[in-house]
Amino acid sequence: MKQKTTKSSGNVFVDLGFDAAEAVVLQMRSRLISDLRIYIEDNGLTQAQAAERFGISQSRVSDLVRGKWEKFSLEMLITLEARIGRKIRMELAA
């Protein structure tokens, strides 16, 4: 059986039916969580060590590692990136 494919818009959340504004925020949160998880892994950190670096509880790091993105606001994720010395750049496109 031949399956129909649809070209992605470039934002999976738009493709899933979220409105454009919400999809942008969800995509940003998703990317930041992924980045923070990679940071933990690449640095060989335990959840306790990551919690200390991020300035949050170990249970919050557990939520992060398990991908529970709904528990983290965009603002909090940007704060966590800043706490490990990273800067977030935003690019606006028309």
Protein described:
With 94 residues, this protein is mainly α. The protein has one domain (14-83): lambda repressor-like DNA-binding domains (434 Repressor (Amino-terminal Domain)), CATH 1.10.260.40. It is 56% helix and 0% strand. It is built from five helices and no strands. α2 (20-42) packs parallel to α5 and α3 crosses α4. The longest helix has 23 residues, at 20-42. The chain is elongated, with a radius of gyration of 16 Å.
CATH architecture identity: Orthogonal Bundle
Poorly predicted regions are: none
The 3D shape can be described as: elongated
Overall average residue pLDDT:
90
Taking all Cα atoms into account, the compactness measure Rg is 16 Å
Tell me the fraction of residues in β-strands, as a range: under 5%
Structural class: mainly alpha
Number of domains: 1
The CATH class, by name, is Mainly Alpha
The main β sheet shows up as:
none
Question: And the CATH topology?
Answer: 434 Repressor (Amino-terminal Domain)
Into which percent range does the helicity of residues fall?
Answer: 55-70%
Compressed to H and E, one letter per element, the order equals HHHHH
CATH superfamily: lambda repressor-like DNA-binding domains
Helix tally equals 5
Number of strands: 0
Terminal CA distance? 40 Å
**Oligomer type:** single chain
